Amino acid sequence: MEYHPGPGRNQLFVPGPVNVPEQVLRAMNRNNEDYRSPAMPTLSKSVLEDIKRIFKTTTATSFIIPTTGTGAWESALTNTLSPRDKILTFRLGQFSLLWVDQMQRLNFDVDVVDVEWGAGIDLSVLRAKLQSDTKHEIKAVCVVHNETATGVTNDLAGIRNVIDACQHPALFLVDGVSSICALDFRMDEWCIDVALTGSQKALSLPTGLGIVCASPKALEASKTAKSLRVFFDWNDYLRFYKMGTYWPYTPSSQLLYGLRAALDLIFEEGLDNVIERHSRYGHATRLAVEAWGLKNCTQKSEWFSNTVTAVVVPPHIDSTQVVRQAWKKYNLSLGLGLNKVAGKVFRIGHLGHLNELQLLGALAGVEMVLKDIGYPVELGSGVAAASAYLMRSTPLIKSRM
Amino acid sequence: MEYHPGPGRNQLFVPGPVNVPEQVLRAMNRNNEDYRSPAMPTLSKSVLEDIKRIFKTTTATSFIIPTTGTGAWESALTNTLSPRDKILTFRLGQFSLLWVDQMQRLNFDVDVVDVEWGAGIDLSVLRAKLQSDTKHEIKAVCVVHNETATGVTNDLAGIRNVIDACQHPALFLVDGVSSICALDFRMDEWCIDVALTGSQKALSLPTGLGIVCASPKALEASKTAKSLRVFFDWNDYLRFYKMGTYWPYTPSSQLLYGLRAALDLIFEEGLDNVIERHSRYGHATRLAVEAWGLKNCTQKSEWFSNTVTAVVVPPHIDSTQVVRQAWKKYNLSLGLGLNKVAGKVFRIGHLGHLNELQLLGALAGVEMVLKDIGYPVELGSGVAAASAYLMRSTPLIKSRM
Amino acid sequence: MEYHPGPGRNQLFVPGPVNVPEQVLRAMNRNNEDYRSPAMPTLSKSVLEDIKRIFKTTTATSFIIPTTGTGAWESALTNTLSPRDKILTFRLGQFSLLWVDQMQRLNFDVDVVDVEWGAGIDLSVLRAKLQSDTKHEIKAVCVVHNETATGVTNDLAGIRNVIDACQHPALFLVDGVSSICALDFRMDEWCIDVALTGSQKALSLPTGLGIVCASPKALEASKTAKSLRVFFDWNDYLRFYKMGTYWPYTPSSQLLYGLRAALDLIFEEGLDNVIERHSRYGHATRLAVEAWGLKNCTQKSEWFSNTVTAVVVPPHIDSTQVVRQAWKKYNLSLGLGLNKVAGKVFRIGHLGHLNELQLLGALAGVEMVLKDIGYPVELGSGVAAASAYLMRSTPLIKSRM
Amino acid sequence: MEYHPGPGRNQLFVPGPVNVPEQVLRAMNRNNEDYRSPAMPTLSKSVLEDIKRIFKTTTATSFIIPTTGTGAWESALTNTLSPRDKILTFRLGQFSLLWVDQMQRLNFDVDVVDVEWGAGIDLSVLRAKLQSDTKHEIKAVCVVHNETATGVTNDLAGIRNVIDACQHPALFLVDGVSSICALDFRMDEWCIDVALTGSQKALSLPTGLGIVCASPKALEASKTAKSLRVFFDWNDYLRFYKMGTYWPYTPSSQLLYGLRAALDLIFEEGLDNVIERHSRYGHATRLAVEAWGLKNCTQKSEWFSNTVTAVVVPPHIDSTQVVRQAWKKYNLSLGLGLNKVAGKVFRIGHLGHLNELQLLGALAGVEMVLKDIGYPVELGSGVAAASAYLMRSTPLIKSRM
Description:
Four copies of one chain form a homotetramer.
Chain A (H helix, E strand, L loop, with lengths): L10 E3 L8 H7 L10 H17 L5 E5 L3 H12 L5 E6 L2 H12 L3 E6 L8 H10 L5 E7 L1 E2 L4 E2 L2 H10 L5 E5 L18 E5 L11 E5 L1 H9 L9 H10 L9 H17 L1 H21 L3 E2 L11 E5 L6 H12 L1 E3 L10 E5 L6 H17 L8 H13 L8
Parallel strand pairs in A: 1-13, 3-4, 3-5, 5-8, 8-9
Antiparallel strand pairs in A: 2-10, 6-7, 9-10, 11-12, 12-14
Helix pairs in contact in A: 1-9, 2-9, 5-6, 9-10, 10-13, 11-12, 12-13
């Protein structure tokens, strides 16, 4: 059954869920399995180990939780912190907003720095906050690496430098939902204590896995953290890791096989090539937006995101119309503007299993949609700008050289 | 990739996860979708409504949560109760034990009635407990309908009668993980306040959906329940239900399409026919066990389970050997004995998308395994007993009459 | 396993095999079935009947043969003609050439009219041939509706008019491999005696079904046709049609279920809308070619094909390089120039389950490839021309209005 | 869509098409590909080479033809023989009958030795025929290795010995449709000139591939064979083999990937283990038939087939009823009696991707069906006999030891 089918492939350019490669669909096309059979630990161990390579960590412990990014947030917070613990964080878009909301509902003492939507974290504000915290009451600095609502990528290395410079012992918790496996991310090098992502983002799987890596320091913190957690308790996992059976409750074997296939694809392409590829897509999309005479919601180039571009429409245009028309006429799925930027921006997700021509097709679609609804774009202008850049920068496909 | 492959189909006779019908695999074989597109509410609404028919409720509100049964438990408890609230419950096997453990970790005041593993809930104990609770301190009676570890089905109608007879206002929360959609279950008629199941059980889907139905009384209770919950908070769902977009965080579109297909299959067969079919499998399996001269772990026929049979092996035999040999030689997956009954019982799951001949093949396998490891079973005896009964009781397939 | 994998979806723009819709992949994702069970005739009858709607015939008899287009050709010829029978036909590209080759090897007396590659059938030549055949020695006029090698669509209605005007009794056999279900095709109205296609073309299935429709006149001819045929003998089918079991030898149930799904998709969109959609793709592609300053291999607009465009490259460029570079750098599959036009043309297939943005992505790819290999195309020019037209002509998606 | 669905897996025990392993379904779950891309020869070469291992030949040339077994027959005959050539063959069931029919329609001079249905080829008759053919007019001896209609396996080694003993130069053509990859088959050792099978039999793929191997002598014969063939002409293949592109017309990439997966599975298990496994199934099934007090259609044990057992029902029973009831009540697909043995036998196919418990489930089903329709079988008797044997003979699964 299909609801509202259209001809051809749906052009899926929301910033997640993203296109699932055929290889992953194939891997998941299977009956259920007894998760207590000897086959499952072989698979489980392989993905629990290999997922760490995506986070660029060799020291962390990985958890694959049957949940979404929202659950992964809760896992990160409740395992490392106690109620009333002070968290320093930044609200700069809908997803950091939602995380803040979760922190508050979980009874942490949240020091929220509000940042204009479209801007990234100001390191000097962070420095000031940490320097003034002489008693080290801040227990954690929580950062959304890539704010999916505004297309803003924060500077994690810079944040780590500030924390270090301030000699502040706070844990460093990072939401890497729309960044890990697509943007430059180095858990160990940047001393991130908890990093997390979801399966339906750059890993290009269906929704269903919250993937969390915890540094030794985070694991240590979990021993004294008093936040109530049961479903999200790392200890349950650790107990089963020791037994070699891995799962405190039934995993989805389909998603684990899918994850295995997704990791294989990424390693085959090369993780750094994958990241480089996303950088090309970000760059190309921004060139198209510029060619259309539109503004990027992201205020400075240092924060430009290579996984999603939020495009600001002129005041007389409702960005919701862009998204609706794209879907109704061209089978193109774009991201809506959310909350503060509802009606003002639409978003082009360009992450996951994707290639240049898919992106250019989507950009051609956006051009037509803009013109359809009355914005005087020159058709072909964005595609021309993007393809001039892509032509120069795209390497031959490794396996086909 | 396959780990430890064997010839032919795996005979999946654990009490979940169960066989996924081809129709469901097909429905799930698809790319990700934008869950904010107009296609998704059409689908979401249809499954949220139709899932209630499986619970036999028209008054409850349904929640489809990206989690497992363990998460569904947590959802049921935290949305309806406050810390320190008194829960009356019964520990009669590994799954009720785990639920009790969760209740305790969630800081409820748990009055646990320990029942011998293999027995069901004694209604007179329940009555005594409720009658003596004149101050109505017991806020909830929590019952595992079908204890998967011992193959014990509790009498929910009887429990409701006792609660009513005592005029006790406690909420009635039921774990229907290995019962709903396979055993007689009547949420409205039995005034159950929260009932829950998981997708990988009788619904015959992959793991990933915790399905929870809440009565109006439960929803009312949720307004004052003080237990901390964020990921599992029903309010987030209810807010999105009102908006008509349904999901507070990204759902798995694959699982929703799979659920749609699973429900279609069940309605096509007829829910009562499905339940009747499971009753045949339970009966047939017990006849086989009897023919083998082995004891059913379930102590009285009133508690016999039609979804899983726990078989007691003689003292000199290790039931783990039965399970291991079945997998290694016959590609047959049986359930281990857990915790108190480890080594003492093995379990035959007979639920979900299954037919008579699959069951008889498994029973033939169990016979050979038993003989393989030294138990003097007469080969064919169990199959003969089971098939004599099945031959008489199996109707023609509806669509083929 | 994947050979030479690349990131993202392969852009499949060869003129067949074409993209298989997810709905069809799902329908085919199934175990084998007993083709003698009562389920199979239900399915078989439904597709044998409904396939006629694609041919626009109510009077013909349909055959679904486990073979390719080449086998369907042989079926058409050997069932209607006798050795030494005179065939009048036209050689205007690689596929008509191959059919002629088959005719000759099958020992027919083939009167081949050679046409310059890039041109279509000259009706005056046809008229002259038929008029001079006063003894009616020509038993069949064989025409490739759409010559896939050069992108030339012949005028079937015109051909029928000439035959009628000449009052010539010859059978009219048509290869509709790259036309049926994409171009205007009217079997009954144009009195076509045998028409055929293959599953992997506009029907958007995998290869494996040769689909043949035979008019009553063709069936009558088959009674006296002396060409030797066994595997391709229509009589074997007709015998099984009468018995209601339909298949003289084992059919692929997967392909039959896939065909059912493909037909459902087409009827849902509306066959005439499908044809109209292909007309948009042909038009848009030609506008792009023009914008690039390149020549269409098709010499006159009356022969323009809406399923494939053969693009002539300048003399100093090797078109094989275009195809190779497209595949190696952009995961774009284009058609090679074949035989006489090898090295001189490359082909853009635009048929089957496809939409505007997929096409525009491919056109953007062709632009980059052309520039990559040294042709001075203005990037974006072709996309601009195509999208200006598509923007105006593309309707809202029916199911999403 | 499903026609006449029933609960649980269909028990597919016809002698083909057989169960497709999940691994093969997964491999086939993919979009179409450009068969002229560099990926396809890599795949094509690998399967064309490896398929020879299944035939146990290193000297033959393999052809993978988009057709069924019927087409493979035609390929074998028309490429090696000329019209009027004398063929010596044996008619001992429906499939050898159909092949004879094809030979006659192809205008060969067929010397048919009729053998009672249920018997195999009498080597002394063969010897007499060959010895009396002093002029070597017999150009080919054609043998169906395993007659699927009666469950008779002919002695190919014996036949080869007779041919050699007679120093007869005839070609030796073998239909291995229901034998190759399941029964002992040695193309090179037994000097078979053409051997053939179909994908939907022991290879456990969907229908669609006719697989033919031709010895050097057969290839040599093809140079002078005058039978008309076009679609089935080996030369077209050989020409493309030389070019390294392999396919004279569009192959099904899905089936080629499926074949790759099927071969991988077989090599992983070990071809000789696969053959040994089938021998167990044949033996076990015959023990069951004996236990039921029924007669095997196969008259002598030397001809017993390990891929299919034809069971003779008592005169007062209509075997069609057995098949019908099995399907209608137990979702069990059995083979009908065909032609001369219609109504008199039903057939249990036991080939392909299958295991012991699937077979025992089917045998249990047959018992119930027999009793259902009035034959006084002792329930469990066949299963007991079969499982006593299987228990002793079944090895541990290789990958699980």
